[in-house]
Design brief:
237 residues; mainly alpha
């Protein structure tokens, strides 16, 4: 038995040694084969596929991923990406997700793959939270958003895209605006004057001393701001 992190970070030699002992039936469907191997290792389906798929040593180890029914590394990557994009902390708990992010700097190809999946992954999680409101998922979501920015995975363009979306309540839930400022991706003054931020997000910027009274007075001169924002700003003068 081993844990997710051990498989994710295993060396080429350790992977070969580990899978040498694995028993599979080539007649099984690849899903069944993955499930059987996962059970032998004490992992679930998603953990096995993602730990291998994000392991930087797996590309050339065709004997290992073929054991799971994948004829190529590309097919393993497709399955890895599908599972990573669509899981909402059910099969891949937040500890696994944070481990993946901490490993990504070791391999540029994995890093680029992660960047491409972040928007759809977060959108999927936000849809799930909107539907179910699971408090544990909200905490995990907040931790994941912080990790994405603080680990240096994303850049200014990613932050601008997130800020431009109508997802203020989710950004607020994750303290995303403050995290963006803390990561040095966008200046608080620029964020404060955007119409896409909800009043509560701007209040956070004010409460954390990122906004001056002069900026508040300037914003109040805009006749098109909402009543909710105006009331909040006037309360801080």
């Amino acid at each position: 038995m081993l844990n997710f992190t051990e498989l994710l970070t295993a060396s080429e030699e350790d992977l070969v040694r580990l899978f040498y002992k694995i028993n599979t039936d080539s007649a099984d469907d690849f899903i069944i084969r993955i499930n059987k191997v996962a059970a032998q290792l004490g992992l679930n389906h998603s953990q096995l596929v993602c730990a291998l798929g994000f392991n930087k040593h797996i590309r050339e180890l065709s004997d290992i991923y073929s054991t799971l029914g994948f004829r190529s590394y590309k097919l393993l990557s497709y399955r890895t990406n599908e599972l990573f994009r669509t899981d909402t902390y059910n099969q891949l708990p937040i500890d696994n997700i944070l481990d993946i992010y901490s490993e990504r700097l070791e391999d540029q190809q994995i890093l680029e793959s992660l960047k491409e999946m972040l928007h759809p992954r977060l959108e999927h999680i936000e849809t799930d939270i909107e539907k179910n409101g699971d408090p544990a998922h909200i905490i995990s979501y907040r931790m994941e958003v912080h990790s994405i920015y603080n680990a240096g995975i994303v850049d200014q363009s990613f932050a601008e895209t997130r800020i431009g979306k109508d997802i203020g309540k989710f950004r607020l839930m994750a303290n995303e605006v403050l995290t963006i400022v803390g990561a040095g991706l966008l200046p608080p003054s620029n964020l404060f004057f955007l119409d896409t931020l909800i009043p509560e997000e701007k209040k956070e910027l004010i409460d954390h001393d990122h906004i001056t009274p002069a900026m508040i007075a300037n914003r109040l001169q805009n006749r098109h701001i909402s009543e909710a924002e105006r009331d909040m700003l006037e309360g801080h003068l």
